[in-house]
Automatic annotation (TrEMBL):
Domain Amidase as annotated: residue spans: 39-429
Species for this entry: Variovorax guangxiensis
Pfam families reported for this sequence: Amidase
Coiled-coil segments: none
GO molecular function, one term: amidase activity
EC number from the UniProt entry: 3.5.1.4
Protein's UniProt keywords contain Hydrolase: yes
Protein name: Amidase
Length: 441
C-alpha cells in the first residue's frame, strides 16, 4: 500500500517531502493505464496550483482528493456519470463536501466515474467505460460501485481521499473490492448540499482512504467535527458477529478471510460473541413495495426520463421506473416500518460496541461477466443484489460502518465491516483502527 495521507502530511510538515512533487506523483498515477476510465474530468492544472499554494500546516496540506461525478464543482455541470446531464447548467458553487475538503487544504485532482446516477453496486458505466479494479493485474475485474472511480483513484495513488456517496453500500462495496478503507458515517453528520441525490432518505456523503487514520481525518473535515479518540485496547470492547443474512451465498475465500480475521482479533484480545439477529429476516417484507431508492429516485428523474430516457443506462432506467408504482400510503408505511425495525435492531445490539460482518459476500467478479448487454442482465442483477445486501443493512438502520481490508496477502481483496447504529461513529472508528493494526501484523 502506498503512503497514506497521515504519513505524507507529516513528511510535508517536516520538509522531507514537497507538495508539488506529491501532486506530480498523483497526476502521474491518474494518467497511467491503471486509471483508464477513472476520471470523467481531470483538473490537473488547477490541482498543481492548489498544491503549490497550500499551507502545509492545513489539515490536508495540499494533497490530492477526487470527487465523485455527482458533486457540484463550481463552473462545471454535474452529470453524475450520465450523458443526459452532460450539458446541464454549470454549478454556481462547490458542493459543501468539496468546499470543506478544499478549505482544509485539499487539492481537487478530478471528477471520478461512477455507476450512472449512483444506482448500482457493480460500478460498470456504458457511457464512460468501467474503471478496472487494480487488485488483479491479469483479469479485468469490477471496481464495485457506485463510487467506482473514486475507489480506483485511491487504490492507484491518484488521490489520498476519494469523495463519494453511500446509499446502499456505494463507498464500502468498492472499498472492499479494491482493498482500501471506506467509512460510511451516520448520514446526518455531513451535509448533502450540492450532491445529486439518489435516495434522500438513505444517501450519505463520505469517503474512501488508504487507512483508518486517514478515514478519521477525512470524516473530521467532511463533518466539521472532532472524533473523540479512545485509548482502550481491543480487550476493552465487546464485539458481536451476526451470521443471519450476512453469510448467505458467501464465497469460500470471503468466509475463510472473515473467520481468520475473527481469530486474529481474538488473539489480539478482542471479546467477540456470536449473536442472532432475526429482525434481519424482516427486510424483504419491509421493502416489498420497492424500498426507498426507487421512488425517491423516480421523484427526481421522472421529467428527465420523459425527455431523455433513451440516453439512460437501460439497467438504471429500469430500476428508477419501478419507483413509479409505489403508492403514497405504501411510502408512509415504509417510513413507519423502518422506524420500528431500527428500534428492534438497536435493542438487539445494545451492549455491544460494534458488529463484525463481511462487507460483501463475494470477491470482485470479472467485468466481462456483467458488462452492458441484455444477455448479461441476469448476472448483473444477481451480482448487484449480492454486493448491496450486507452493506445496505446499515443504511436501512441509519447507522455507521467502516470496511477495512482483511484478506490474506496475495488473495483478492475482502472487506471486514464494523458497524453499529447511528452516532456510534467514534467507537466504530476506534475499534477499526485497532483491528487494522492487528490485521497488518
Amino acid at each position: 500500500m502506498r503512503p497514506d495521507l497521515y504519513a505524507s502530511r507529516l513528511a510535508l510538515r517536516a520538509r522531507t517531502a514537497d507538495a508539488r512533487t506529491e501532486m506530480a506523483r498523483a497526476i502521474a498515477a491518474a494518467e497511467s493505464p491503471a486509471c483508464e476510465h477513472v476520471f470523467t474530468r481531470t483538473l490537473f492544472a488547477e490541482a498543481h496550483r492548489e498544491a503549490a499554494a497550500a499551507d502545509t500546516d492545513t489539515v490536508l496540506a495540499g494533497l490530492s482528493f477526487s470527487a465523485k461525478d455527482l458533486f457540484d464543482v463550481a463552473g462545471q455541470p454535474t452529470p453524475a456519470g450520465s450523458i443526459v446531464l452532460a450539458h446541464a447548467p454549470a454549478a454556481p458553487v462547490d458542493a459543501t463536501a468539496v468546499s470543506r475538503l478544499r478549505a482544509a487544504g485539499g487539492a481537487l485532482i478530478g471528477r471520478t466515474n461512477m455507476s450512472e446516477f449512483a444506482f448500482s453496486g457493480v460500478g460498470v458505466n456504458p457511457h464512460h467505460g468501467t474503471p478496472v479494479n487494480p487488485c488483479d493485474p491479469i483479469t479485468p475485474r469490477i471496481p464495485g460501485g457506485s463510487s467506482s472511480g473514486a475507489a480506483v483513484s485511491v487504490a492507484t495513488g491518484a488521490a489520498f481521499i476519494g469523495l463519494g456517496s453511500d446509499t446502499g453500500g456505494s463507498i464500502r462495496i468498492p472499498a472492499a473490492l479494491n482493498g482500501i478503507v471506506g467509512f460510511k458515517s451516520t448520514a446526518r453528520w455531513v451535509p448533502a448540499d450540492g450532491a445529486l441525490p439518489l435516495s434522500t432518505t438513505l444517501d450519505t456523503v463520505c469517503a474512501m482512504t488508504r487507512s483508518v487514520r486517514d478515514a478519521i481525518i477525512a470524516h473530521e473535515v467532511l463533518a466539521a467535527r472532532r472524533v473523540t479518540r479512545s485509548t482502550l485496547p481491543l480487550a476493552g470492547y465487546r464485539l458481536a458477529v451476526v451470521k443471519d443474512l450476512f453469510f448467505d451465498a458467501i464465497d469460500t475465500p470471503v468466509a475463510h478471510a472473515f473467520e481468520s480475521t475473527v481469530s486474529t482479533l481474538r488473539a489480539a484480545g478482542a471479546r467477540i460473541e456470536e449473536i442472532a439477529l432475526p429482525a434481519l429476516a424482516e427486510l424483504p417484507a419491509i421493502n416489498a413495495t420497492g424500498g426507498f431508492s426507487a421512488p425517491e429516485a423516480y421523484a427526481w428523474h421522472r421529467l428527465l426520463l420523459e425527455r431523455s430516457g433513451a440516453g439512460y443506462d437501460p439497467r438504471v432506467a429500469q430500476r428508477i421506473l419501478k419507483g413509479a408504482a409505489m403508492k403514497a400510503h405504501e411510502y408512509i408505511d415504509l417510513i413507519q416500518a423502518r422506524a420500528a425495525w431500527i428500534a428492534r435492531i438497536e435493542a438487539a445490539i445494545e451492549g455491544f460496541d460494534a458488529v463484525l460482518s463481511p462487507t460483501v459476500p463475494i470477491t470482485a467478479p470479472t467485468i466481462a461477466s456483467v458488462a452492458s448487454g441484455a444477455e448479461r442482465d441476469a448476472e448483473f442483477f444477481r451480482v448487484n443484489a449480492l454486493l448491496l445486501r450486507n452493506p445496505s443493512v446499515v443504511n436501512m438502520l441509519d447507522g455507521c460502518a467502516i470496511s477495512i481490508p482483511c484478506q490474506t496477502h496475495g488473495e483478492l481483496p475482502v472487506g471486514l465491516m464494523l458497524w453499529h447504529a447511528a452516532l456510534h461513529d467514534d467507537t466504530v472508528l476506534a475499534i477499526a483502527e485497532q483491528a487494522e493494526a492487528a490485521l497488518q501484523q
